[in-house]
From TrEMBL:
Cross-referenced CDD domains: GT4_PimA-like (cd03801)
EC numbers, comma separated: 2.4.-.-
Species whose genome carries this gene: Bacteroides cellulosilyticus DSM 14838
Family matches, as InterPro entries: Glyco_trans_1, Glyco_trans_4-like_N
GO molecular function: glycosyltransferase activity
Record flagged with keyword Protein biosynthesis: no
Keywords from the named record: Glycosyltransferase, Transferase
Pfam families tied to this protein: Glyco_transf_4 (PF13439), Glycos_transf_1 (PF00534)
Domain Glycosyltransferase subfamily 4-like N-terminal: 16-170
Domain Glycosyl transferase family: 188-332
Keyword RNA-binding (UniProt): no
Name under which the protein is recorded: Glycosyltransferase, group 1 family protein
Amino acid sequence: MKIYVFGTRGFPGIQGGVEKHCEQLYTNLSKDIQVTVFRRKPYVTQNSTYSHVTFIDLPSTKIKGVEALVHSFLCSIICLIRRPDIVHIHNIGPGYFIPLLRLFGLKVILTYHSANYEHEKWGWLSKQFLKLSEIAALSFANKIIFVNHFQLKKQKEKRQTKCIYIPNGVSGFARVDNIQCLTQLGIKPEKYILNVGRITPEKGLETLIDAFLLSGIEKSGFQLVIVGGVESETNYFHMLQTKSKNREIIFTGSLNKKYLQELYSHTRLFILSSYNEGFPLAMLEAMQTGCDILLSRISATQIIPLNENYYFEKGNVAELAEKIKRKISEPQYIHSYPIESYNWNKIQEATVTVYKSLLAKQYNR
């Protein structure tokens, strides 16, 4: 079985939830499934060898709004020439080309990660294009995988017959005792609040910073640690830096798993302040490590049922500040969450089942 994949910047070592999703999904599939992943050259900084995964690195711009479109067009042309068994596309923007692929007889699966047009970083014209892409992708894809079941339930009943809910997963984020990475970053164990994610407006980091400062815990020696890289949103990042000037707030940039494990293991509180998400992997990582957490109340953070103590109203600085103070004052312990089903082995099996359903004649002999 030959699967061609695009809609991700690639992996390994490339920041992003979709990128982590693809790395976990494709690198551990059975060896009879040959996967070809299209990567965007400007983001490729390292290579790894996988027994059944190959890469095609294509030129791409880093211009917001153009990058994915140009890359996806080139990927589509190659798919039309090479004709894999299945084309697996991630995100609705690249899904714009699904009608073209279907017109020439290719089988296409779309993984719907999030409604990208809800993200604040996009202008009016880009949002209209993404909405058009969503219509095209959802209408013409053979199968649609949703990582968020709330998004799936929004679909018309007729369309839901070709939709499947397969969530994100998490693995390998066990607690560690080491603090070597923390020491390098100038961070004291149990004396910081942690946020992990790409620095973009939809992450609500201005709400987090304002709430941290309003809470007053800085006076007790606490720091706010924000982990994530900056790409095209430099104006937004500069605004955050201005808010944080001369305060106990650290921007670490993008960090690898070794650093993340230490940060999750020794944080006093993990906060996800996002306005929009598909199914946040950072939330799952924090849960698997046993962090105490606070989550903005959006559909993506309520996929895993938790009590109200773990939520705050998105964008509400005063409520978040109050809950930060309350959490910090409570006894500290390792938390346990109901995430057993968010297992990559199960997710891989479910995805392969979708693949085989599209190639029923071949696999029902």
